[in-house]
Amino acid sequence: MQRALLPESQTDVLIVGAGLAGLSVALSLPAETHITLIAQSDLIECASGYAQGGIAAVLDPFDQVKEHVHDTLIAGAGLCDTDHVRHILSQAGDAIQWLCQLGVPFSRENGTLHLTREGGHSQRRIAHVADHTGLSITTTLQQHLKHRPNIRLLPQTQLQQLITDTQGCNGGLVRQADGSTGIIHARCTVLATGGLGQLFGLTTNPLSAQGHGVALAALAGCRVKQLAFVQFHPTALAKPQNPCFLISEAVRGEGGLLRNHRGERFMEKYDQRLELAPRDIVARAIATEMAENRQSHVFLDITHLDTDFIIRHFPSIYQHCLTHQIDITRDWIPVAPAAHYACGGVITDLAARTDVPALYVVGETACTGLHGANRLASNSLLECVVLGRAAAQNIQHYLADQTNTWPAMKTDVSAISWNTVKTALAQTKTDNSIKPIAFNLTVLQHHMSQYFGICRSDAGMRKLWQQLHYWYQQSEPSSTDTQSLITTILMVYDGLHQNRNHGAHYNIDLLCLNHASPSAE
To answer: Which of 175, 279, 375, 456 is catalytic?
Structure first.
């Protein structure tokens, strides 16, 4: 693997991001394809590596793809693209087989893959590697990079700007940690930059997850969608750290119970599925219990399970909690919701193509229609593999096509363009009551947590919009902080134009019927 950054270089495919989505693209392309893969930090610093639960796939003979589709549509609260859901989930078996061929050491029982269950799933269908699935998968795939001389790896390198012309995307301007810059010309570019959880005060996302990819794609001319739907994981370990340590959904799938400070199970008040309800419902239930009891957390209790079972199935969680003097075989685990997953993103088709020719987007940065308003547990790693491999296949065809044809993306009334949002910003009247607070990521996180968290309101979002408007007027176009700001503006614009509650978007002012959609102004 080459590591040097040249002031100007040429590659067939530029991949931005080294999580599971980016790795799936890189390792699915032919060996003769010259690939440049850049990572904002080190390879290990990606959201995929933090994923504990696993990959959802219909592998049990008593399960059916149509049931997986049904569960996904229910969790997505009416905003999934049904055809895309069917297509992606039908590829799950092939995705698992590909990972097995690469050597991913999935947990097995009696010679077959062990399947666990998570919230929102009607069956056991989660293939996993104990409770460190994402880390094991990404580590395995990263090892394969060492044997691919056609891949040039550039860690500690950030994409500053996509280069486009009337023909499409031609690569990007990048900057390394030492401040040096370079232009990487590419015949195809793939954004796999991950999520945006670091725009909130509490998140399970890595430090690099600041929404840069969404902003870069939007600035290049791509439409975005469903950015208001940020899934909060119900059970992050309630200890001060960034990112928060995740207590896997599988802990509840294997029988974990949620209790308040009085020791009472409370989920029966909120949903008949109890602890296995979809994440948005569980997260709001926990937030409600915390508010009513004026506590900073609730508890997850698995002390009734066999000790050997707990240690065998949740070794990473067990060891990490011990560092906080919590023995999960005997002690209840303090947990609270934290920003976890962006259900929306840059609109793509089933080949990961965007509105801009030669620009592909995969993973959490994309909006494929799979997740709708609320992601079903363990569908995200599956999406990374399925769409990553689909992107690689389409890239091969595109590079071989002398005419470089690129299909027009279908129209979508819920799609948002940056030009539309810029117009709304220009028409926003300055609110003199907004304090001239200097912009930085910490201040942004505070505002987002306060006004765009699990529960929102018209007044809170309008106040946040005004603050974002002020910061945007003061911003520097080339700054990476501005990229985070632009993504936040797109998110809040989408939230202000939601006219009913679905999934992860919950506006307390929309609880009454026939509520009019608020204006961003």
So the answer is: 279
